[in-house]
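Quick note —
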Amino acid sequence: MIHFVRTAAVALFILGGLAMGPARAQSERPTRIIVAFPAGGPVDFVARSMAEPLGTHLRTRVIVDNKPGGNGAIAAETVARSTPDGTTLWLTSVGAVAVNPVLYDKLPYDVQRDFAPVSLVVSNDELLVVNVNDPANTVPEFIANAKKRAQPTTVASTGIGSIPHLAGEQLADATKTNLLHVPYKGAAPAITDVMGGQVAAFFGDIPGLITQVKGGKLKAIGLAAPRRHPALPEVPTFAEQGIAGVDSNNWYAIYVPAKTPPETVAALNRAVRAVLATPAVSERLAASGALPMASTPEDLAALVRQDTEKWAKLIRDKKITAE
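Predicted structure written out below.
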């Protein structure tokens, strides 16, 4: 069962069993965390928060290597073609492993063939925000107002097929409301236009929105998660507001090349668990809005299958096609 790892006691227990083996420990080759996004973004933030303590546990130097482009394909190919010895890790969001294989007819990588799951890293719940002057303070109010308008209400996303886009489609289906999807190239311009009143609402990851929400620049009205978020305890879930079926999580996870030995995967999994149990790391991630979360490789594989099935159905039903 997927579970949070937060305590020092758990960390000590894990460290007691951590062993990479003599050959791995003596290697001078640095371990790379490949990130499919530019430096400064939320995935990069998580990677850099983990790099140094992960290096301590693996007894090697860990560096972050940003390889943006190709909707994640460049990073994925880099990892898939690397030596399967545990020195090349892929920190990816759910989109590249559970959405892209459905959204695109052809990809230069195959998730099942080319990669081995290591562990979940963080959970990123989707948050619905509106302009601070919007009269709606709840999702039902927002939907009621949308249904009164002659023109469809605009909801921004970070792009076609992104988790924010799919969350918006879930909301439209759940409430039988005519919402107009407005795709942007990234979260920053979408957030700017919600604050400026050019679009009505935006679904986004909490780490990218928490500063604006806490600073009073955006109004958060609903959380697409099973439970409230500890960093925003005042924001109710969609289910609490009587809206079922809006449940979107842009989680991040670590993968390695498919032929990586099982014992190396197991050792990496123990190291990730230990790092996420370290208070300095877990508190830094939680403060950003990302919930530290570890899993077994098997549970990560099951989650990918579950999310792939969920998003594939929505993409087919809504006839969503890639740009």
